[in-house]
Amino acid sequence: MMLATSVISLSQNKASDSSNFDFNFDLGIASRNIWRGLDYGSSPSTWGDISGTFKNFSIGAIGTTTLNGSKVQYGTWLELYASYKFKNISFVLDDYFFFNADEQDNNYFEYRPENTQHFVEARIEYENDYLEALVGYVVYSNSGDSTNGIYIETTYKANEKLSFTAGVITGAQWLSFYDGGGITTLAVNGHQKVKAFGKTLQLKASLVFNPNYANASPQVGNNPVYFVISAEL
What we know:
By secondary structure, this protein is an all-beta fold. Helices cover 0% and strands 58% of the residues.
């Protein structure tokens, strides 16, 4: 969910006796929630991911919230997802709900197209040792929203210490808070693994440019460049 963030996460996996079902629980904390080239909440953030996997199928929920408690700039959201993986390809369906700063506008159970705040995105993802790629399209949202743009993102892993990420949106899409298409992400990422307390700590430094920042909604942080230090356990 977060492209480049300062993250320290804790994971726990529990498998059933049949080895066909896995329960996963992840926690993280981030200095900034940078997603598709934008800064959500302009605050350090925390997130949690709970999911269950049976063979190639997974369902789960991801919750993200700002540490300053503010819902301004949509830094608090809930994402429900379901996925099916076949070899290196995953088919994913996400239901995003961004919480508004005005509590009276946060009717989570409202799915009617004229009133809903939900965005349902269908994605295809591919991953191997050198490449990660995804294509996403919003298949359901408020009837008044402009959500025709397709989001495309790729990450090339040159080696264990260096990767490059590029993201582009083909047109207006309010899931990603853009009213026009363009390149949303050009990132250079440095990676380093270190041993700490008997665990492997993955360090990451990212320089992220957003050439499409001028087409982003002023309701979220839309800077042209970010420098992010990340740590993941």
